[in-house]
Every structure is written in C-alpha cells, then in structure tokens.
Amino acid sequence: MSRNSVRLTAALALAFSASCGMSAPRRAVQAPQPAPIPTRADFLQSVPSEHVLFETDGFSLDAQARAVLDAQAAWLQRNPGVLVTIEGHSDERGTREYMLALADRRANAVAAYLQSRGILASRMSVVSWGKERPVGLGSEEFSWARNRRAVTLVP
Prior knowledge:
- The protein is an alpha+beta fold.
- It contains 5 helices and 4 strands.
- The protein has helices spanning about 5-20, 40-45, 65-80, 95-115, 140-145; strands at about 50-55, 85-90, 125-130, 150-155.
C-alpha cells in the first residue's frame, strides 16, 4: 500500500467516525496524587528537637528554645493539617499542685510562641503532666534539667 493510500484510508476513517458521532480516543486523565500525610518521623527529621527546656521554677523561653520553636513553627506552616499536643513537664522538687501549674505555664508559653509565629490556636492542645512523667530518673541536677521541659507532639 502506498503512502497516499494509507493517508486516504486514515482520512476516510476519521471522516466516517466523525459522521457517526464517534470521537477520537481521549487520553486518560490521572487524578492528582494525595499529598502524603506528615508523620512524627517527618517532624523529628525537620526540627532540631521536639522539646524545649526551662530554668528551675521558670517558664520563659530563652534564645535556644525560640530557635527550636521557630523550626517547629516553620514545619507546622508547611503542614497546615497537622494538629499538635504541647505537653508541659516539671522536675520533682515541689508539691504536685505547684508542679502541675508550672508545667501548664510552660506548655502555654510554647503554645503562645507558636501562635505568635502564625500557628492557629485551634491546631494546638495543651496538657500539663507536672512531675508525673519524668525522662530523667535521678534526683540530681542533670535529671531535673531534663524534666523541666515542654514537648510538641505530632501524632
């Protein structure tokens, strides 16, 4: 079959399909792929730490804590669907009630800072554990310092 015959055959087939109401085959449209759901592992790989530390009886954020929270805020801005829980903790020195209140102030200081960086308050919940969940198990300054913390938890 010559090239002209092939062209004529293709043109006739196209004209016939058009007259019959048939259309040329369409390309399949791929649905957009859903964005991956960010995980705690993603968070931990992207920020210097999930926790910030505090001085004895304090709930002020120092420069190091603000730097950590700035990185957390940036990650949360990139992942607007993620909700977080901010846990406040304290060391063992003091009454249960005092330590719960102090840990609450620590967690709320973190939440307020993140909110000042554009994270909606509705994305954050705050819980105070006081001295109930220590990570440092000794009764010396090293352990106490590790327990004076606020932790940003990503599910």
